[in-house]
Amino acid sequence: MALELKNVTKRVGAIEHIKDTSLVLESGHFNVLLGATGSGKTSLIKLMAGLDPIASGTVWMDGQDVTRLSTQKRNISLVHQFFINYPHMTVFDNIASPLKVAGMAKSEIEGRVEEAADILQLRPMLHRRPHELSGGQQQRTALARAIAKESRAVFLDEPLANLDYKLREELRDQLPDLFAGRGAVVVYATSEPEEALLLGGKTALMRDGRVTQFGTTADIYRNPANVDAARVFSDPPINTAEIQKEGNTARLTRDVSWVLDGAAADLRDGAYTIAIRPHHVLPFAGTAPSVRIAGRVQVTELSGSESSAHFDLGLPGSNDSWVSLSAGVHPYEVGEMHDFYMDPSAAYVFAPDGSRVA
Amino acid sequence: MKTENQKAWLFVLPVLALVAFNALIPMMTVVNYSVQETFGDNVFFWQGLDWFQQILRSDRFHDALGRQFLFTFLILIIEVPLGIAIALSMPRKGFWVPVCLVLMALPMLIPWNVVGAMWNIFTLPDIGLLGYFLNHVLGINYDMTQDPVAAWITIVTMDVWHWTSLVVLLSYAGLVSIPDAYYQAAKIDGASNWAVFRFIQLPKMKTVLTIAILLRFMDSFNIYTEPFVLTGGGPGNSTTLLSIDLVKIALGQFDLGPAAAMSLIYFAITLLVSWLFYTLMTKDDLN
Q: Tell me, what's the ipTM?
């Protein structure tokens, strides 16, 4: 199964909600749409589901052009952030509703509903109404409906956002197994980077109605295409700063500079932004070649196995602070100067427009 | 710590007083009349349940009751589906929503006797717009002052014109309260328009429709002003509905005892049917 978008756009009035987007989403793994609220995740899902009209471009399912095909005929499932179940029907009827509409035999409906109910542990609730269920059970009912239908594509639009923390973790761990081996293209929209990392598969980063990067989730983590992509998967936040490149020297502050090599050395002279993850900025010199940065420690946090320190880079006219994250416990003194060591080969270099150059 | 005292009664008292004045006391006056005979001068003779027996056995009452049920049945069978259909075809958002709502509300804003007078003039064969058109342009013989069927068509049409809006507005309120997500879910399930209506829109409208039908039942079952102005109960007694008959007995013949007994029977029937209907409609929700 594959779901393909070719140069799709969506307009509401004069505003372009989805800008020229092309994507190939495949079955066998999760396809995560990751972006902040308003970045176009739900809009894109509605286009794929046929719920909203497409301004231009085409949608393909398994090599078939479905752009003009009505939602009813696309054989898809959608699970919303809000629990959408038919309030006057029992859980059984809710799960069975798409099968009944399809005119399936009663015995087969029962078989499929019971299978889906078993997977989602809804067996004891089959004859209750949605309002008699907890939020987690209601959402599991919606998921069971998607599973029982055996549709070609399943869209999960922030399905865990309205659940409490514990249920969210529980259901998130189950999700990949629920859809494994069913052959459906699974599209999962979320605003939480952590979910994308945990669910694995591929991720499409979305921003302002555009897919800014698409690839396996691990690859986006390792090779962000732009500053935003680099920021997404970083906790604590990735360190960024402006550098000046002259010849093969990069200069961060008056005292901190290093020799560039590889692709970065071939760039034109000028201003660039570097981004480096907190665990590549350490309070001690490692084995890799490292650049010493002296900074005033502002805040320190110790957890059971890691220490982080926020420190002032000392850049004139800038309040930017960097974070160092290292294993073990380190004796920081807040307000004191401390030496940190950065591995420049782990830094990403971006042009002023935010695109990655090295 | 729970404290018990009788202060709550103080809060109920004003309501009790109000209900006593606007319902209980007038009602007891009627009960008083219904078991006595009076010839004026405040002289009363005890009659027991004679008036009730007389009314319940009289053909005149049976006929009026039959006409009353027929009228209510006809207007319900037309107004409810028509009202739902209009509500379904009204726009859910945009410029036309307030326009439609105001247009719908207009008939209900007109005083009832004016509605009767309007339709009376409207359907007069020689000068009324509709009456003239039917008789002199289309050549259909239509005169509600002569023909009972024409009279019935006219009072039913008038009521449909006057009150379908109520069903429309209540149904519409039920419809717009359905979130888009339900329609999307139904589309994704592959549901046809009929299935969407049957399994999403109708259940969501059930509560308001119950209220709409109850209101229309009670109003049409007690209707007086419009048919009185329009046909005066004629031709003959063909459109003499219960309330018209009641007024004839009470004020025309000044038979206060039988009229009071009839009022109570009338009230009991209205109450019984309303209760039955409401109980049946809400039976599922209680379980």
A: 0.70
